[in-house]
Specification:
The complex is a heterodimer of chains A (171) and B (182).
Chain A (H helix, E strand, L loop, with lengths): L2 H14 L9 H10 L5 H12 L7 H11 L1 H25 L7 H29 L3 H16 L4 H15 L1
Helix pairs in contact in A: 1-5, 3-4, 3-6, 4-5, 7-8
Chain B lengths: L11 H14 L5 H11 L5 H13 L4 H44 L3 H29 L3 H15 L5 H19 L1
Helix pairs in contact in B: 1-2, 1-4, 3-4, 6-7
The chains are: A mainly alpha (171), B mainly alpha (182).
């Protein structure tokens, strides 16, 4: 199967499984990207970091992965997979009107998905830390950033710049 | 009370600019900025309408913020409006990201540059962990919800089980836990 088709199908399935945002799918994305031999875990963690350091929706990391695997056509295939089917469905439902938006089942389903989404997001952080924290200074950076995110309201970009500065100085 | 009528048309160019502002304003996710732009700045939606739209868009498959762009664009500009909102949200940030990645690709061989990105990757992992913990604090899970959360975490981070399997088991359990809590 062509690599473009593989990218499209892989990200289309990611899109269906994105509970609570694209970052929930990172452990699965990393697992598949490594299994395909497209990147190793460290390269994946780098790609994720670069995507975080650039403004925009989190799902852009899909485009970056496609780009690094085969270039512009790969980015297009990955993003088409990530957005095409789900956007079409959303468009059709938005056209159909409000009929189902008041349905209490939506609220129940949404509440039930909250712990799934949080569990996946914490797994994302852990999987990325396993790849990125290759020495104690990096582990400290991860811990400081996590603590800073919880107890301060600093823009994430400052922590990424701190990480880059510490990395460059110690590396 | 509605901020603007559900069927009021917004020109595609205006939708494009509004969603571009959202896309360009955030690092590590832009969802909080969607509320600021659509509710506070443009007064296109009330808080309640935004919450309702987010509710629908978060149970639909696909990234939530993308679904909001499509939903809102469709409601206020049809197919063209949806395309305009989506392009604004994704287009410019994508070009910026690929440019950044290309520049990095040129210098990835430099030890200092790759060490800097190593450090940034460690911080990025911390950002995601911190975000997850903030969500835990906000939700204050009870025992049943907390168990579902831990099970999902363990399955995804340590067992590395496939995501469809995790969701197939955990989503019904989550709904059950939420029902018990209500």
């Amino acid at each position: 199967m062509s690599v473009l088709v593989t990218l499209f199908l892989m990200f289309a399935s990611m899109s269906l499984l994105a509970i609570g945002g694209a970052n929930s799918t990172i452990p699965e994305m990393q697992r598949l990207v490594v299994a395909h031999g497209w990147m190793d875990a460290t390269q994946f963690a780098h790609a994720f970091a670069i995507a975080q350091a650039s403004p925009g929706p989190n799902m852009l990391v899909a485009g970056l992965i496609g780009w690094q695997v085969v270039g512009a056509s790969g980015a297009a295939a990955a993003l088409a997979g990530m957005c095409g089917p789900s956007c079409t469905l959303t468009y059709v439902l938005a056209r159909a009107g409000d009929r189902f938006s008041a349905d209490p089942r939506i609220a129940r389903l949404r509440a039930g998905l909250v712990p799934v989404s949080i569990g996946l997001i914490l797994a994302t952080g852990t999987v990325l830390a396993q790849a990125a924290d290759t020495d104690p200074s990096r582990t400290l950076l991860t811990a400081v950033t996590a603590a800073g995110t919880i107890w301060t309201l600093r823009n994430p970009i400052w922590f990424l710049m701190l990480g880059a500065a510490v990395g460059a100085l110690l590396g | 009370m509605t901020a603007i009528a559900e069927d009021r048309t917004i020109p595609p160019a205006v939708l494009f600019r509004a969603f571009m502002a959202i896309g360009m304003s955030g690092f590590g996710g832009v969802l909080p900025f969607a509320r600021r732009e659509l509710v506070d700045r443009r007064n296109w939606m009330t808080d309640a309408e935004f919450a309702e739209t987010l509710g629908i868009c978060s149970v639909l498959p696909g990234p939530n913020i993308i679904n909001i762009a499509i939903w809102f664009g469709t409601r206020h500009g049809g197919a063209l409006g949806a395309i305009a909102a989506f392009s604004g949200l994704v287009g410019v940030p994508l070009v910026l990201l690929l440019t950044l990645a290309t520049i990095y690709g040129h210098y990835a061989g430099e030890p200092r540059v790759s060490a800097a990105v190593d450090g940034m990757a460690a911080s990025a992992a911390g950002l995601v962990i911190g975000t997850g913990l903030v969500m835990v604090r906000r939700v204050q899970p009870d025992l049943a919800t907390g168990l579902v959360l831990l099970m999902v975490f363990f399955a995804a981070a340590w067992l590395r089980l496939p995501l469809p399997a995790i969701i197939a088991v955990a989503a019904p359990l989550g709904v059950l836990a939420a029902r018990k809590r209500a």
